[in-house]
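BUG-209 | component: ligand-complex export | severity: low

The export step for uracil jobs runs without errors, but we want the raw record kept on the ticket for reference. Input record follows.
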Amino acid sequence: MNNLNIVDHPLIKHKLTIMRNKSTGPKEFRELLREITFLLAYEATRKIETLQFEIETPLEKTTGYAIEDKKVVVVPILRAGLGMVDSILELLPNASVGHIGVYRDPQTLRPVEYYCKLPNVRDATAVFVLDPMLATGFSGVHAVKILKEKGAANVIFVSLIAAPEGVRQFEIHCPDVPIYTAALDRQLNEHGYILPGLGDAGDRLYRTK
Ligand code: URA
């Protein structure tokens, strides 16, 4: 699993444990998703392009660095990916945000696209795709394919929990896309849910069940 980066910092493990707990309610769940995404983003942006230029401190000249965040694109996969957007925008406030709406056909578990609105990704230095649950990998790979067709050259996938099945899909279909995740769980169940996982991330974020 060369494309997989597990960011299992104690802070993340602690927060993820609370999210997994079935008695954690939507308010806390949303807050924790934001906090963990902030921590994941620290690692996921590690290779982001920086400009170098000269600045003057009160004492002397030195080299300064800047991220051109206007050239960064963030793409949440609807709907659970929405819960991760604000953290990334806190770090990269001028990033553009695209949206890809994909749901899983409950029978085939295959992705069905129902919405796609994207900024220019051809000129983006980095495109971060956000989905808390990398389960079958079908939706994630579908989103990456759309972005690549539109010219995205540097796509990075950020999730909270990944299943081995999903990571494998990425290895097969988009091996150049690094995955940053807080945990690699055991497996999927027959309905495509991650075990042990945390249940349906969208339902838990938005109290739809
Ligand atoms: N989507 C979720 O929200 N949870 C899973 O376990 C798998 C996919």
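Assignee comment: Attached the raw record above. The two ends are 34 Å apart (CA to CA).
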